[in-house]
Specification:
By secondary structure, the protein is of the alpha+beta class. It has helices spanning 18-32, 57-68, 101-109, 115-121, and strands spanning 36-44, 47-54, 75-82, 90-94, 137-141. The chain has 2 domains: 18-82, 2-Layer Sandwich (Histidine-containing Protein, Chain: A), CATH 3.30.1340.30; 90-141, LysM domain (Membrane-bound Lytic Murein Transglycosylase D, Chain A). This is Peptidoglycan-binding LysM.
Amino acid sequence: MGLFDFVKEIGKKLFSGEAEAADKIKNHIEEANPGIQGLNVSFEDGVVSLSGQASSLEALEKAVLMAGNVQGVSEVRVQGLQAPPAEAKVEYYVIKKGDTLSAIAKQFLGNANDYPKIFEANREVIRDPNLIFVGQKIRIPLK
């Protein structure tokens, strides 16, 4: 599963019908303002398409994760979303049963106490570091 594929049945419930999906997802992304200018969102049959200008690759990734971690979304496309090249290496991880941010930090960063780094990298997706859910996709900033 790559950055742009998601589990359709899992995530934050934002909309009840396809007609309102694009507006609800756009508002959800803009509320957190990850750094996207001129954001446009379309939604069709579980696929979200994003366009606009991202201030960084990190902003693009956050917008993708915010859109994808919504119930009813199975894929996010970004052909129209422009971003500068990456500044740091990032890996993506799908939360499994029994995971904690500390355990994920230990696995990827070598120290369980580094979980705030993962939380900060996903603040737009994870509102509370103690409340993550199975199937949620997050960014892991690597050293």
